Amino acid sequence: MAKRKLLKDQDRRKLFDIPVDEDSLIRHYSLSLADRLEIELRRRNHNRLGLAIQLCLMRYPGRALGAEETPPRAMLKYVADQIGAAPGEFALYARREETRRDHMARLMVYLNKRSATLQDRRAALLAAVQAATMSDDGAAIASSTVAAFRERGALLPAIDTIERIVPCRPCHSPAPGRKNSD
Prior knowledge:
By secondary structure, this protein is an all-alpha fold. It folds into two domains: 16-110, no CATH class; 118-171, no CATH class. It is 59% helix and 0% strand. It has helices spanning 9-16, 22-29, 33-40, 45-59, 73-83, 90-94, 97-110, 118-134, 138-151, 159-165. α2 (22-29) packs across α5, α4 packs across α5 (73-83) and α8 (118-134) packs antiparallel against α9 (138-151). The longest helix has 17 residues, at 118-134. The radius of gyration is 18 Å and the shape is elongated.
């Protein structure tokens, strides 16, 4: 059976990808003094940079750094410049999975975030159903789902998981006053 794909590629990127334009970098990835103090607790530059990158991703888009994921160069440079590290040092951080997981656990406490629970998924489903009664636009429905996770302080699950939470178009009635486009 083919996997259901609710979102277009551009919608997926908008919701989950790391922004690279200067305004977004400044808005989402500027570190506070408290953030910098937390980051400075690490001894090596590559660990400081890796922790800072994870911190930024947990704030926006609200997800954990993936195993073997390398953020865009623009983000690496912007964050590295703030903590006095070189962007290339991230490659050393990314090699050690245990450090990444330890940092993720520490940052979840620091940021008051947690992995999504069954209750979070239910709240996200409710948000999706409510959005689906107003629109049959997959991106709008997925945005409501993502917002529900963020409002509850839960890290976003994988995009495929979110697409499974979102009700498919044939499963909901068209918005009032709208014809079903199928």
